[in-house]
Amino acid sequence: MTLLDEIQSPADLRKLPRAKLPQLAAEIHNLIVDVVAHTGGHLASSLGAVELAIAVHYVFDTPRDRVIWDVGHQAYAHKILTGRREAFSSLRQHGGISGFTRRSESLYDSFSTGHSGTSISAGLGMACASFLKNEDAKVIAVIGDGSLTAGLAYEGLNQAGGILKRDMIVILNDNEMSISRNV
User: Fold this and answer.
1) What is the separation of C-alpha 103 from the centre of its chain, rounded to a whole number of angstroms?
2) Which of 62, 116, 149, 175 is the most buried (most CB within 10 A)?
3) What secondary structure letter does DSSP report for 83?
4) Which of 34-48, 54-68, 144-158 has the highest mean pLDDT?
5) What's CA 162's distance to the chain center, in Å?
6) Residue 46 · residue 32 · CB < 8 Å
7) What are phi and psi of 139, to 5 degrees?
8) In terms of Cα–Cα distance, which of 112, 20, 4, 115 is closest to 66?
9) pTM of this prediction?
10) What is the C-alpha separation between 142 and 158, in angstroms, rounded?
């Protein structure tokens, strides 16, 4: 039996001792490689975000706390940890699960993503809504360094920190890489 067999949701993940998290990361890495080898998909970006997805779901109370993945193809580990491990072999296949986050697919997908630049602005909107509803839920935007080349990301940062000052967390996945070298 693997650790992944015990994980149906982030609540299950949070029951693991921290010392087991590297083993879990290795199991997720192997699963992603096996599935993407058959279905196609974004291998490097997802492998590079496995430990990040584990940390986010281990620390935050998802789905109450909302996580917005800037590019859905970094969210494969997120999908596996949020109850879609059994369906993961259908990734990007007709009738299967999406290669990106989809609100219609899981309550853990706070925002339907495609490609980069939208997480901070979307998260700011959610943080403003939480403020107006007097909720104490956290909003976490995960954005890669390649996505910071999008003007919308800077507009979101400017509004969040400079003008509205809403409580939200921005995690920068700085791996010094986009689809090609950053310019």
Assistant:
1) 13
2) 62
3) I
4) 54-68
5) 25
6) yes
7) -125, 125
8) 112
9) 0.92
10) 16
